[in-house]
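Protein entry
_____________
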Amino acid sequence: MSFGAIYVATHKDNRSKNITVNEVLRSVRLLRTYSPNIPKAIVATKKILQNKNLTKHFDYKIQSKYPNFNGFMGSKIQALELSPFEHTLILDNDTLPILDISNGFNFIKSGIRDIALSIAPRQELRDNSGITNFQNGVMFVHKNKRTIEFFSTWLKEVRKDGFDSPTRYIFSKLLLNNPNIKLYALSYFWNFRIDLLLDFNITLGILKNILPQVRVLHTHLQRTRAINIFNKYHQVNEIKTIIGFQG
């Protein structure tokens, strides 16, 4: 039974292309360092696939299929359809896998569960519907008939709502009405979204105790407070060296 991680790297213009390439490079370098046994695939636009500095890190290079989604969050949805792996780890480009995450495949490899992913700190969507806000930036998926159909529906709904629509909200609402998808809830240590924490009054002292347990940091590393949180990680200097971050 094959397994591996996959990224989707698309862009609207040269500026977004450069940002995307830099973020994927950060993430895949960390994945290679801390989870060396996980095969890696990238789905990308033709121009990004021409970047040998990036693609040398991947075992599979696949051209993206839906040009209308290029540069939008919905582009990630094609990851499962194009994945060469039966057990697929879908990673957002701005994720920083800072510990070995290979045992995450155990949550789906039995065939009992289809998807393993975490929820947001706030846990619910902001529309007062009470619907759980699932975070799909780090998502283990068993590629089977149920999940392929689910991702196909997700793609159609995003296309209908607009390419710049909030894909995770649509994803969460679809899960509400799909009893066939069997979920496993990961802790937020698997997808620790630093930028979401900016909304909370959490002291850096508290975070310093939490961060050693985090497996995947999730941040663009652009906002000052996010960088301050990142700098509290106990192995931050080692990580900065790996990803080439100067902040």
